[in-house]
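A favour, since you know our C-alpha cells better than I do. Just paste the record in under my message, thanks.
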Amino acid sequence: MAGLATGLLLTRDGHRVTLLEKDATPFPESPMAAFERWDRRGAPQVRHSHAFLARLRNELRDRAPDLLAALLEAGAEELPFDGLLRPEIDDRSPREGDEDLVMLACRRITFEWVLHHQVQGEPGVTLRDGCEVLGLEAEPQADGPPRVCGVRIRHDGGEEVLAADLVVDASGRRSRLPRWLDAIGAEAPEEASEACGIFYCSRFYRLRPGAETPPRDAVIGADLGYLKYGIFHGDGNIFSLTFAAPPEDKGLRALLRTAPFEAAARALPATEPWVAPEIAEPITDVHGMDRLMNTRRQFVRDGRPLARSVVAVGDAAIHTNPMYGRGCTFAVVYAALLADALRAHPDDRDALAVALAEAEAREVVPWYELTLGQDRDAIELAASLREPAEPETQQATGAVDPKAYMRDLMKRGLLPALRTDATVLRAFMRAVNLLEPPGDLMRDPEVLRRVIASYEARDTRIEPDLGPDRASMLELLADAA
C-alpha cells in the first residue's frame, strides 16, 4: 500500500518511478477475483479486517480524486458521520467539519487492487514483480554518510543493479533496511520496539440476498478487557469480524479455529445479528496474525540522514498495533509527506530526509506514542483479568488509583456517552480518524464535562451487555473446540 501510494503521488509530480514487488502473481481481472485468488504472500494482512479512516479518504479527495472515484466505482462506500448515528443520539444536526469526517468501507484487497490498477495506468511508473531486493548500491562521500545510488535485485533472469537517485523503502514491518545500511557502512538506525500484546484473527462473511442488514453504527464492537472484537464493513455486501486477545491467554487461542470463532461470534450481542445464518454466510476460513510489535526506526540523527538518497515510508519506518486501524492511512500519509518533502527539496537529499523526519515526528510519531501507552495499559488490564480479582479504584491506603479511575471513567463514562451524546461521539470519531491530535479528546472542557456527567449517572442506568466474562467465554470456546 505504501509503495503503490508513493509511486502514484511521486509520478504525478513528474518523477519517473520504478516499483519493485517480490510477489510474482498475475494481476487479477477484478477486485472479487483478487479476493478469491490473488496470492499476496508478502502481504498476509490483506486477509484481515481493515479500517480506511477519514484522514486517508481526505488525502485521496485532495491529492488523487480520481483514485477515490475509482474506489467508489469498484464498490467502496463512503461512511459519513451523520449516517452512523444511533437512534438515541441526542442531537443529529450537522456541524462544521462533518464534511471531513467520512470513512471508507471496503476490503483491503479491493483497495490495493484499485490502487494497483491506477498505478499501472500512470505513464511515469514501471512496475516489476517477481523482483527481490538484495541490498543497496552506494558511493562513499568525503563530507558525510554514504550516498545510495541504486539497489541490487534478483529475479528469474538473474541479478542486476538498478540505478536510482532516490530509493524508497516501502517493504513493511519486516524491512531489511537496517541490515542493508550496515552493509554499505552506514550507521545503524535507532530502533525501539514493544509488543502490541495481542494476536488477532479474522473471518469474512457475505450478506445473503434480501437479508435485512442489522443496524450499522459508528462502532460495532467492544473491548471486554480480555478480548477485543469488531465488525468491519466492506464492499460487495461483504464484511469481516475480527477478534484480538493476549497471546499469553492460551484458552482464547481457540479463536483461531473455525468452531470456537463462530461460537464466540454468536455469543456477543453486537456480532450475533451479523453472523446469524439467515443474515450472512462465511466465505473464508479464519486467518490469524501473531508476533505483533509497535516499532519505530529513525533514519536521521543529529539533523543528518544515516545514508543519503534513501528513505523509509509506512510500516518500514513506523508500525503500530493493527487493531487501531491506522496502518493503511499512515501508508498514504507517508506518501503525501514524502511528495511534499521532495517538492520542497528536489535537489538536496539531506534536506529531503530531514524534512520527512520532521513531518513524521509531527504527523505520525504522536500516534505511535499514544499506541504504546494504550497497549501497555491493555496488557496490564488483561493480565489482571486472568487473576481472581479485578483492579480496584481504591488503593490500600484509601487513595484513588488514577489509572484504575481513568479505566472506570472510560468504561462507565465515555462509552455510554458515545451512545447518546453527539458532541462526545463527534470528538471521539475525529480523534479515531486522525483528524485531531492524539490525546486532545479529554482535554476539551465540554467533552470532559459531558463524560463526567455520564459517569456520575452510572448507577442510574442499565449498561448494555457487551459480552460474557472471561470464564464464561473460555467455557464456551472449550465446548465448541
